[in-house]
Amino acid sequence: MSFARFMELALYDVQHGYYMTKKFETDFSSSDRIGWGGDYFTAPELSPILAKTLVRQILAIDDQLGHPSQFTFMEIGAGNGTFAFDFIQECRTIASDFFHRLSYQIIERSSHLQSRQAARLSTLGREWGESHLSWKSAIEEVETDSITGVVFSNELVDALPVHRVRMADQRLHEICVAYQSGRFVECLDHRLSPELIEYIETHKIALSEGQTSELHLAAELWMKHVARLLHRGIVVTVDYGHTHRDYYRSDRKDGTFLCYHRHAISTDPYVRVGEQDMTAHVNFSALASVGMTNGLDLVGLTTMANWLIGLGVEELVRDQDQESDDIRALAHLLRPHGMGTTFKVLVQRKGMEAFALQGLRYPAFFDDVVFSN
Predict the structure, then answer these.
(1) Pairing between β-strand 133-136 and β-strand 102-107 as defined by DSSP bridges
(2) Edge-to-edge, what's the strand order for the sheet holding 258-261?
(3) Are 231 and 147 in contact (CB under 8 A)?
(4) What does residue 71 show for φ and ψ, rounded to 5 degrees?
(5) Is 337 left (phi over 0), alpha (psi -120 to 50) or beta?
(6) N or C: fewer beta carbons within 10 Å in the chain?
(7) What is the C-alpha to C-alpha distance for residues 109 and 135, in angstroms, rounded to an integer?
(8) Could you count the other beta carbons within 10 Å of the beta carbon of residue 312?
(9) How would you classify the pairing of strands 264-266 and 258-261?
(10) Is the pTM of this model over 0.85?
(11) What value does the mean pLDDT take over residues 195-212?
């Protein structure tokens, strides 16, 4: 099978997939896969800062949309529900009118994670009313042009299955997976599918001898669905990744694929199958390009640090004790060569006139870099 199919099953198989099941390890007390007691943590687990600053940006978008009677905020892949809880709480605290017009919709394919999210948000649901908070299991279930508002994801695209390719003997091969003698093994196939050939030609991908990298067909399909469902509004995609020029540079010999287990990094996907996370960095140039092809205008791309600073994060922590947990968490989010620069924020627009976004006051990239291929 292709590596993409192997990754899809390892992460999303209903009975055995990493995201679809509870963690069960007799020597590890936590049942969470996300967080300090799990395999990895995300920005919302560190601090509510991302949610709080994003609320301020969303209120500006609401102004531009003319304060619709229902503003939909759709989160795709909501983890444990931490971001949703912080976001909704902040709306209730600082923007009462918006809070009562807000419809928070979650797309979550894992029934296990849906249950965790529902438990985390249960008190809000009782106070707010079920009509304001809802779930769907797949983006394909969302009607075309049905969303006026914002479509948001945080560390979702990096977990979408990727095809892996390797240049060997001056020929590009797809990495496939076989099962031999009781274990998974890699094999190479030079017979590339038409879909892979089209992706390679469209993005002008050229690897050096011995170089391995990833092709993001599933991410492009996901972006096409996002463009389809949005009627008017903004798409905000937060993840770690690169522009095209960085992604396929010749000195990135082993690609970007990684596994995470108990906060340790591995490059071996064939151990602990179904019990470790698998990710690949996002190709933001490809997302921006396919978005444009499907009606999403590029607004900008910046780093997590620049996004937070542009939204005035320093004002939110101005009165905090410099030794507090919040300040330590913020330092982690802003850290150069860490989350602050590795994580990017891609913003796209549909059905709206161009307007300035505070979060993009300090852009880290120019359009010619975003689309450089």
Answers:
(1) parallel
(2) 264-266, 258-261, 277-279
(3) yes
(4) -105, 120
(5) left
(6) N
(7) 10
(8) 14
(9) antiparallel
(10) yes
(11) 96
Structure tokens at 97: 């009118």
Give the pLDDT band of residue 370 (cuts 50, 70, 90).
Answer: low
Tokens of 44: 């919302």
Tokens of 327: 């300040």
With contact defined as beta carbons under 8 Å apart, do 362 and 304 qualify? no
User: Please, are residues 214 and 255 in contact by the beta-carbon 8 Å criterion?
Assistant: yes
Confidence at residue 217, expressed as pLDDT on a 0 to 100 scale: 98
User: Could you report the per-residue pLDDT of 263-288, keeping only the tens digit for each?
Assistant: 789 999 999 998 999 999 999 999 99
Average pLDDT taken over every residue of the chain: 89
Whether the CB-CB separation of 252 and 275 falls below 8 Å is answered with: no
As given in the structure block, the two tokens for residue 83 are 């971001």
Q: Quick check: 313 and 243 in contact, CB under 8 A?
A: no
Strand partners, 73: 104, 150
54: helix, coil or strand? helix
Strand partners, 196: none
pLDDT band at 30 (very low <50, low <70, confident <90, very high): very low
Sign of CA dihedral 317, 319, 325, 331: positive
The yes-or-no verdict on residue 27 having pLDDT over 70 is no
111, 75 Cβ separation under 8 angstroms: no
Eight-state DSSP code of residue 352: S
